[in-house]
Amino acid sequence: MRAEELQRLGLNKSEAKVYLALLELGSSSAGIITDKAQVSPSKIYWVLEKLLQKGLISYIIKGKTKFYSAASPQKLKDYLEEEKKEIEQRGKLLESMLPKLMRVEKAAEDKQEAEIFIGFPAMKNAYFTMYDSAKKGDEHLVFLRSAEEEGKPEAVLFFNRLHKKSMEVGLKRKLISQDTAEAWKLFRKGAYARRKGDEVRFAETIPEGINILNNYVLFMHLAEKPICVLIRSRQMADDYKQFFYKVWKKSKK
Fold it and tell me: Of 4, 35, 67, 177, which has the fewest Cβ atoms less than 10 A away?
């Protein structure tokens, strides 16, 4: 029999090897067990102690030496019963702890913080912070900057890289741009026309440069030196989501 099979019962590799060695050897000293089980001498007493605690081995003292013996394999059934009881007790403990844990989680979700990022490299970190909070299927909602700003070569390169990252995450992106001829050209025939996964609409008046994703809101301005403010606030994000969807319903496809 291989030690790997006993590991499926909950023993670690060393415990399984020592138990099997003792079944074959019978009453033996630690040194003999070490050689047979091929366990490190520095670990053998720790492993033996663990098996003693589990009731799978016992020992007697002859002279000043301990001789260990494996308990009957039938004892493994008792061990599993004890493990089952222990798991049931942990389950009950978890049930009693869940309300407190949920309160801790909610407090973390309600935590509010803000950071400022200046320059495209720093702004990339801001966006990636949002993306790290997301999973496949999450919606990334965007009020775009003006077509003039969004269409700058450096901006196109930056946003196309972000688009690639968002596709890797699996985000669903909804974007609203100003309803101008330049914007229609940029997103229907220009630099952003071939991006997959983006759903773009157009509205006459929108707040510019706002991204909403999960509990994050990012305000972005493409000045000479691009800058953005990333805010983590569940309440703020929820308010902006509601506003975005109102504008989305009235916007042009």
Answer: 4
Cα–Cα dist 100/245, whole Å: 34
- Nearest one of 62, 56, 71, 79 to 26, comparing CA atoms: 71
Token representation of residue 218: 């990012």
Q: Which of 3.30.230.70, 1.10.4160.10, 3.30.530.20, 1.10.10.10 would CATH assign to domain 3-76?
A: 1.10.10.10
Helix (H) or strand (E) segment spanning residue 208: none
Residue by residue, DSSP assigns 125-150 as HHHHHHHHT--TT-EEEEE---HHHH
CATH of 112-250, one of 3.30.230.10, 3.30.870.10, 3.40.190.10, 3.40.430.10: 3.30.870.10
Mind listing the pLDDT tens digit for each residue in 5-36? 888 888 889 999 999 999 899 999 999 999 99
Is the pTM above the cut of 0.85?
no
